[in-house]
Design brief:
By secondary structure, this protein is mainly alpha-helical. It is built from 6 helices and no strands. Helices cover 59% and strands 0% of the residues. The chain is elongated and about 50 Å long.
Length: 103
């Protein structure tokens, strides 16, 4: 299951296997192997992929068909794939700024 979902997420983000491999410090052959189900990424890699693509690990590995985390009582805004941690922090800080300003 992870192979197909990884393929779809990678394609939706407009990434080649080489580009994703470079981000993970693995070869494009390794990414291809993940996508074809010939090998399984480490748990650490699964967590990285889920965070990068903004989905849950459960979705990535096929335990859930819901790609986004459910936060009862909270609004969830999916962010574009590929944002760095710094960019995600900037978005969070800006949202907090807006909430304080309008609150």
């Amino acid at each position: 299951m992870i192979g197909n979902r990884l393929y779809l997420l990678r394609k939706a983000a407009g990434l080649s296997q080489i580009e994703l491999g470079n981000m993970l410090s693995v070869s494009h052959h390794t990414i291809s192997s993940y996508e074809k189900g010939k090998s399984d990424p480490s748990d650490e890699t699964k967590v990285w992929l889920a965070r990068y693509f903004g989905v849950t690990v459960d979705y990535l590995v096929g335990l859930s068909d819901e790609p986004f985390p459910s936060n009862a009582g909270q609004d969830v805004l999916p962010l574009p794939a590929g944002l760095t941690d710094v960019q995600r922090g900037t978005v969070r800080d800006f949202a907090l700024f807006l909430a304080a300003r309008n609150g």
